Amino acid sequence: MKRILFILLTCIMCAPLFAQKGQAELAVYGGKLSFTKIDNPYFGSFDPGFGFGFQAKYFLTNRMYWAADLYGGTDDGTTYYEETAIGRTILSAYRQDYSISTGIGFNFVSLKHFNSYIQGLVGIGTVDGYTSNYISETVGFKRDDLKRTSYLVTAGAGLDFAISKHWKIGGAYTFRYLGSVDGSHAIVAKISYVIH
Q1: Cα angle vertex 86, ends 81, 88, to 5°?
Q2: Are 11 and 111 in contact (CB under 8 A)?
Q3: Which 8-state DSSP code applies to residue 42?
Q4: Which residues cross the membrane (predicted)?
Q5: Torsion angle (degrees, nearest 10) of CA 102, 108, 110, 113
Q6: 192 C-beta neighbours (distance < 10 Å), count
Q7: Does the structural domain 2-195 have CATH classification 2.60.200.20?
Q8: What are phi and psi of 4, to 5 degrees?
């Protein structure tokens, strides 16, 4: 079994390299976004929403590329219920996330009409929104602004399929860790324009 895995890995690594040094790609992407609370930076939680972005890649070698990414996402409004002293209460939350990041990626499979890649980016991100919380019968509700800016670390993987000389379609998964706030998972579809 080890020998078969070694042969497969060798074939993948020695496959013809169809991305070319100096090639650039411009991509637009969008899809489902979900949030993962890390520690306890705010009250409540956010419903899944959607994210969208723009990414530029420039190939430094036949497999390695530099990427720059602009991203925006939202939970599209969250409503949740809490049992309180005055009965079941509706609470709400809302957020918009924005980020800019840069880093490197690597095409670990690069064939004529298909490639798969991994990438790691770092940058800065911000969240703008609010959460609400029921405090007590005498105090009532409290709305907390959620406005924070923090460093951002992202890791992702994806697939691209060439549909013509200049166009690719594909999909990707990305995890974004926004330091002092939380993390988010995105599964997106994308379309890319290739500049030779």
Answers
A1: 20
A2: no
A3: S
A4: none
A5: -80
A6: 19
A7: no
A8: -65, -45
